[in-house]
Structure formats: structure tokens, C-alpha cells
């Protein structure tokens, strides 16, 4: 077995690989960019080498530098993880040329599956069922347009070298085709260096079911169950599970056999995933093959009891597969939720910030957390915004869902916006519990997935007041005289009752609270309503009773910013002071950047008349494009940034003189 490997990746997957390698007695070499100098994967590795500036193109994508470090450190093999260079044919070839084992498939297999159009041709020849569409070499707009009309609508435009939802567009009719093609090609060019597209019929109610395959150097192949990854947004997986609910054993075997056949058709070695679209009539069609370990591989590990990274290392060393197909067994049900730094209420815009508070559920045989960050780490614009993967297992799907809901309630983050509340609503929703799954699940159930807050504003404000007051008491000095009224740490006044004021800002609204402290409880007045509150704070946990309702919450107070956590929900407010009043990020009529990122395209010029909803600027952040649209009709008066420039969240991009009838609404 290898004695030392280099991990050409970062974050969660680098940490995941290190854990298994160390368990097997293998030393690990990490690489890191400027942004990752203090990252968790660096501290976990046996040694680490600086590789360049923060942008991945100048660090984690520098294949020559990575190979140089591998040779310098004495690493016998390189594990690419997923993303970055994991499916880069040139990198695999360079490893082979330098006598370094690439812990992945042969470069020829990566090349065969790296082009989605070429992959479909290979699969067609191997007898694997395909979705109708076009995957030819002629990439002229005229040919693609003609093939689109031949394929029929709705259709899916897909980057041939793509992955992770980048360079993909659903097109509903021919009128949308030209703009969608231009955007998809541009995004594919930026993400993969290749703008080529394929076209396939877009099934309206499909499920995304994928098969985990493994092959060794002797040509033997097995499949290790399937995963349902239907719950997606922007073609990126949000929640995955194994096994796929509702599949018959006949379909499961047919899909598994087809996946192994697909892998063997390209002389595959190592871990791979063959992805299928599964239609309502039980038919399935080859979609693509990912020639690497998948983000969602832990759910397969949880139901099979196998360590897939260990399998990768053994197969790369030249050992045969640890199990034959008849020996592969599954037990129970597993779910994985991807914890992202993003704002679901703003169309899942990526978020940045500092993880000033991070509390995760306790790990056990039922709960697993795969992460690459710790409290205090920064979520930057340079890399994917995934914070962690939360994986649960139990005997049945229903029990596993209950585990997931509970674990999400115990996952608490402050300092950056996350999708935890959204994931909690999703996992606990009745359609998901009933396995009413399609790739359009999120759009079909938006009302359920974006519920009203669990705490009404008044009760949340009362609890916030209790948290603030108890937090203050915990840090105030106490009189040494046990009989002194000043030792009570309340608002005691001689010969009077004093209701101390507290102003809490929620969004743009400021709430005036009056708190009268008694010996054993508070009276809290909020907007002319009075509540009786008892509260006790231990660390970050507040045990409270509000008018007889006993409730337990957690919270974090930092620089006047308070976040309360309750049953997967959050309540955020600010301790308001006059000098903390929020000012508009931009003057009236300004169009501002919703995130940190780079300007990809400016689709207007000074003097242009624009209409509400018209895309004026396209930004790129965390590998995804985002359209910035005009809020109302008007005329562009000034443009502040050019294509290629970096901008910060809140920066004014374009000034617009709104039409008089729309100005009040726009402001």
C-alpha cells in the first residue's frame, strides 16, 4: 500500500480523504492557497505546501506545480478529490508520465466521459438507453438551432465538458433559444474552457437516479446500490438519499447492470458514478458519467457499510475489488443534506462571511458531519460555498428523515447566511416524506419550502430580550455582599420600579421594548402587549417560559448582532442605537451588487431606456452566473464598473433615472 499520497484539493473532501488515509497508515501531503493557509485540511495533513494565490486558476488548478510538489515530497500517488483537476485528462496523463499514480480512472476513460456528447455516442454503441437529443461536433448556432427544433421543447442545453449545473439552461421555446445558448456557452467557457453544447429533450417529471460503480484493473466491475438526487436547484443537488425510494428490484438491477456495462465500455478503473434520468413510466436514460468520487458518496457508505475512499486507494494500488456483486449488501436508509452559505430567500445567492458561531449535531452511528471548516473560518468568494455535508442513517426512510430533521435543528451557524432553515422545511415537508420526487421538486413546492417563521415576532422579541439581559448578567460584576440589592444583577432602583428600555431592530423595523425585572422573572412590554418571562442562560442555551409556554432556544450575540435558533429556524435582530441606523447602500435609483463577485457582462450603456426585469449586468460569484435586472422602467444615467472588474456586495453598479410613474415603486 502507498506510504504517502498528495491530496490535490481543499475543504471537506480533502479532510475526508485524510481521515481514511490516516486510518490506513498512509501519510498525507496537502496543498493550500493564500486563502487556505489556516484551513482545516492543512492542519490535518502530515505536511502542506503553499501553491499560490486564492483564485483556483492560480492555485488548485496548477497541475504542473502540484506534480512538482508531489515529487518533492515523495508522494507516490495523487488523490484529486472532486472538482478542480479530478476529471482533467491532461492532469491524469501528466501523473502517468511522471510515474505518479493518479487515484482515479485512466486518462483515456476520463477523456471518453469528459465530453458529454462523446460519452453519449459511446453509450449508444454499448446499448445503454439515451434521451433523444443532439450531441454532434457541429457547434454552429444555426445547426444547434435546427437540432433544437428537431428535438422539440422543452429541451436542456448542457455544456459537453460541464458539471455542477454550470453551462446548463432549460429552454421552453424557440424564442428563448438564442439568448439561452449564448449564456450557457459563455458560462461553460468561463468554467471549463470549452463552450461546446449538447441538446437533449427535457423530461418534465423525471427523477435523477445514479449508480455508484467500481472497477478494478482486471476489468471486474460492481455497483454499490443507487442514490436518488432528484431534489435540486439550478441543476445542483441539494439533498440525496440511498436507496432510491420506490424502485422495483427489477429496475434497480437493470440500472445497475447498465451502469457497470457503461463503465466497462471505456475500460474504467476506480470509483465512478453513472447518472440516469428515471421517468414516471419506469424507463431510464443515460445522462452522464462522473469519473470521480461524488459529493454524495457518504450515503452509499452508510447503507453498504463500505469506505469508498479505502476502495479507491486499494484499487489504485492494484488490488482487486474488495467485494463481488453478490457480496454487496445494503441496510437501512441514508440521507445527505448539503449545508451551503447561500440565501434561499434571494434565489439561493451565494453568501460570504465569517463563521463566527458554529455548533454541529453530535456524531454517532446515525449522524455524520463531513466538513472542512471550523468556527472562525471565512467563507470567501473564491471557492464553492458548501460549508458541510450532513449525513444521517436509520433502519427505514421515515426514521432517517426524522433523524435529518432533528440533526438540522442541532446545526447552528451565525455570521453567514445558510440554507439550513430551507433544508429543514424540505426534509420535513409532506411531499418529500411521501417520496413525491422529481427534479422540479423545489419549484413545485415553494410555498412549503419557504414557510412563515415558527416564532411570531412578539414572542421572538421577548426571547431576544431575555437572551440579551441574561447575557449581560453573565459578564457583569457581582457585589460581594449577598444581602445587597445591587447583587441581584437586575434593574433595581431605590423606592421605584424602573422599566429599562431595549430597542431591537428586525429588518428595517425598530421595536421599542420595556423590561421590568422582578426577583424571579421579567415583565416585557412589546408594542403595548405585556409578557411574563422567566429565563436562564447557560452557555448558548436559553431555557425560558413565556406566559406559561416553556421553550428552549440557542443563540449567539456578537457586536450587537443577535441570532436565535429554534427548531431549524432562525431569528435575527440588532441591538439598536441611534448611531447604528442603517443607511441605504446606494442612492435612490441605484442598482447594487447583491454579492461579492466579478462583472462578466454589462448589457446596457448610458442613455439606454430599460424596462423592469431587463438584465443589465451579469455577475459571476462562486463559479455561477447571476443576472442583475432593472427594478423598474427608466433610463441608464451612469455605469460604474466595466466587464472583468471585481465588485463588493452593496457596490453601486448602475444609476437609473426611473420613469416618474415607476419611481415611487422602485425606491
TrEMBL record:
Pfam families assigned to the protein according to its UniProt record, in alphabetical order: Biotin_carb_C, Biotin_carb_N, Biotin_lipoyl, BT_MCC_alpha, CPSase_L_D2
Cofactor(s) this protein requires: biotin
CDD domains referenced in this protein's UniProt entry, alphabetically: biotinyl_domain
Domain Biotin carboxylation positions: 1-447
Official protein name in the record: Acetyl/propionyl/methylcrotonyl-CoA carboxylase subunit alpha
Annotated keywords: ATP-binding, Biotin, Ligase, Nucleotide-binding
Occurrences of domain ATP-grasp (ranges): 120-317
Domain Lipoyl-binding: 580-657
Keyword Glycoprotein: no
InterPro entries according to UniProt: ATP-grasp (IPR011761), ATP_grasp_subdomain_1 (IPR013815), BC-like_N (IPR005481), Biotin_BS (IPR001882), Biotin_carboxylase_complex (IPR050856), Biotin_carboxylation_dom (IPR011764), Biotin_COase_C (IPR005482), Biotin_lipoyl (IPR000089)
Origin superkingdom: Bacteria
Taxonomic placement: Bacteria, Pseudomonadati, Pseudomonadota, Gammaproteobacteria, Pseudomonadales
